[in-house]
Every structure is written in structure tokens, then in C-alpha cells.
Amino acid sequence: MPESNLTKNTPPDPPDEAQDTIVWEDERAMKLVVEMLAGNIVEIRPQLDFDRQLGFFYPYVESTLGIKGEEVVTILESLANKEILIPKFFEKLIRCPQCQSVNLRPSTSCPRCGSGNIARGRILEHFVCKFVGLEDEFVSKGRYICPKCKQELRAIGSDYQSLGLLYKCRDCDNVFNQPMIKWRCLKCSSLTAEDKINEVNVYSYNLNDSRRSWLEFELQPKPQLIEFLKQRGYEVTERATIKGRSGAEHTIDILATRDDGIVSYNIAIGVKIAGDEVALNDIFDFDDKAYDIGIHDKILVVVPGLRREAEKFASLQKIKVLEVRDLETVLASGAPKPSEGIKKEPFEFKSKSQLIEYLKQRGYQVEENAEVQGRSGAMHNLDILATKDDGIVVHHIAIGIEVAEKPVDLDKVFDFDDKAYDIGILDKVFVAVPGLSREARQFAQRQKIRVF
Ligand SMILES: [Zn+2]
Ligand SMILES: [Zn+2]
Ligand SMILES: [Zn+2]
Hints:
- The protein is α+β, with helices and mostly antiparallel strands and 452 residues long.
- Helix content is 26%, strand content 34%.
- The strands form seven sheets. Strands 15-16-17-18-19 form a five-stranded mixed sheet, sandwiched between helices. The chain has a five-stranded mixed sheet with strand order 20-21-22-23-24, with helices on both faces.
- The model is unreliable at 1-20 (pLDDT under 50).
- Bound molecules: zinc ion (3 copies).
């Protein structure tokens, strides 16, 4: 594959999913999720405590993670933003905008003059003089006497009426329905109008069950798989963005690349996690992407499993499908790691025996003059067939060697490519001494044959 295809760049505005991995950069968030997955806690509930600056805290999180206050809230909120936790409203707190204290007391006042000197009671109106006042103001020695005109009130409905329970301001005589509410801070004593007060919602949190499978994969097998690949010399990129031959950009969940001097391997690993079964469409998508990018080593990790028709398609397209338990088997198998001490030197052809030695050192099983039957039924002879099982993918390399007086012609390379195609080997190496003709070279490049 052309190297330029493999430039990994982060798109400027990644989709939501792309940020998923960021969660795990915070080990504390991870630990909390592990506890929840294990069922050690079902709901993270806040406890109100007005002696604390925040006014509430999460006892479980504080004791489990050994952190306090704001830090806990930041972690919980980031997990909720990633839809890993589901917040549930618990309580609304109000906060003093001056000092952030949650210790506030409502204070009612007159909406006209702002005075707090107001009283609530039955309000009477004297028709004769239009005086309006609290019942208390009229009561005098067991009778109702109007405090303004000093006449006695006689019969309700005829010379006075009750306006009901209302408020009256003792400073400006305003009669009103609703007092203005202000908040007195018990810490800094400042008085804040209701519309200037800060409100804070406090939530309890539950694990989002629809993401349970995904989380379980992210936390356990995935890091192990990445470690497994790294130990085998692969460079691993998560959520690699790669431009395909069509020009479209694709994201591969895990891209593992390794150049062992002879062949450059690229493994596309897709991860599909579904509620019930992974559907055919998901496999199509993955296969299309890999094809467009030009990667033929394809692994699809599926949780929980594949539908039958998807399974058939996957095997037809040579996609290695791993369910989590298969993956666990692979990871536990302790497949051979590349032997230490082998230098990463670029290969330079000197002789066939030197090439074979080079391959063996790198853990390949080497067969010379291998007789292999192709899909057409024809028998083919390969100069060298090198096979290596690196635990997760079995690599087959077809190697053709041509030593001649003058540059090797197209037909030789063409024949070699044909054979490899019929056998179904996609990693192809052609050694030409003294070299290839121009057309042969172009052909080799197009057919992704590595030439030495
Ligand atoms: Zn009166
Ligand atoms: Zn007033
Ligand atoms: Zn305050």
C-alpha cells in the first residue's frame, strides 16, 4: 500500500464516538466504572452537607477514589457527557453569587419599595373612605373601627369587604399578592434578588446499561489486545483515520502496522458491539473500509456474536472474526513473541540462502520450491513460501526469485502474480537480479508486490 495512505491525522471535529477513549485517560474515572460494572455500587447518590463549600458530596466516590468535592463532580459529569453514566435529578441548590455559599435564607419584601417590613393577613377595604388595611389594624376593643375615618364597620358586603389573605407593606402601605423574594446569605450576609441567584442541580448517577458491553470490552480485552500486538512488534493506532483509494476518509478502530524488513503488514481491527447480534451491514461497512484503504488482514471483534449470514460473509471475505471468548483464547495463548535481539535492519538481497536465514530469524517457517494448489485446481511452484503465525494473524508470503542477465521482464512478474492470486496469497515479494524492466516495475507496484 502506498505509504501516504497511512498518514494518521485527527479530523478537526471528531464524532462523539471518537472521544470515547479520552475517558480512560483518567484512571479514576476508569476505576469508578469498573466498580459499577462489577456491581459494587448501583447508584452513586449525593449527600447534602451545607457545611461543605459545594453543599453536597458523593460519599462512595470520595472513599473509593480518595478525592473530594469539585474533582468528584468533574469526573461524574464527564462520564455523564459520554453517556456512560445517566444522571437523575436529586435536588436543586441555590448558591450565593458573592461567596458561593449554599446557606441562604429566603427573605420577603415589598415589591414596590423593597422594604422587608411587610405583614401577611386578611385585608379589609372600607367602602366609605376607601381605606385598605390588615384586619389587625381595624380591630379595636372587640369591634372593627376604620383606622382612617374612625367609623365602625357594620356588615361585610354592605360597607366593607374582605379582599382575602394578602400582604401589606408597613412602610409604603402597598397591598400585594406576592412578596418579592430575596436571598440572604448566612455566610456573607449579602442579599440577592431571586433572578440573580445561582441554581445548581444535584444529580445521582447510574450506569448506562446500554453501554455495558462496550465498556466491558474497552476496559478489559481491548487494552490487552493492544498490548499483545505491541509485544509482537506492531505499532498500534486506535481510531486511526486513513484516506482510502476512493478519497473517502475512514476510521479504523485499531490499526496495527509492522514492517519486518520483507513485508509491511497492516492489520485492520474493527470492533462491533451490538445489543443482541452484530448484523451483516456492520461487516459490509468494515470490509468496504478495509478494501478502500487496501488492507487485506482484517480482524473483526464482535460482541456478543454474529448472525449466521454475517458469519458466512465474513469467512468469504477472509475476515477473521473473534468473539470476546476467542479473543481471550488468543491473548492467553502466549503465541511466540518475536525473538529479542533481531535488529530492525532493512532487507538487502545477497543470496537465496541469506534470504531464508533472514526469514527464519524473524520467526517464519520457510518452504523452498513449495508446491501449492491454487483455487483453480492447478498446482503452482513457489520459490519460497514463508509462513508465520503471530498469534492473531497467520501471514503467508509468496516469494519469487528471478536471477537473469538483464532486467527481468513483465511476463515473469505477471506469472508470479497470477500464481499468488490463484493460491490466494496477498503478501507478495519478488526478488529480481539485476532488476526489473520498467513495465515490470510499474506492474509490480500496481499489484502491491514488494520488489528487491
Ligand atoms: Zn374609613
Ligand atoms: Zn413598600
Ligand atoms: Zn454569601
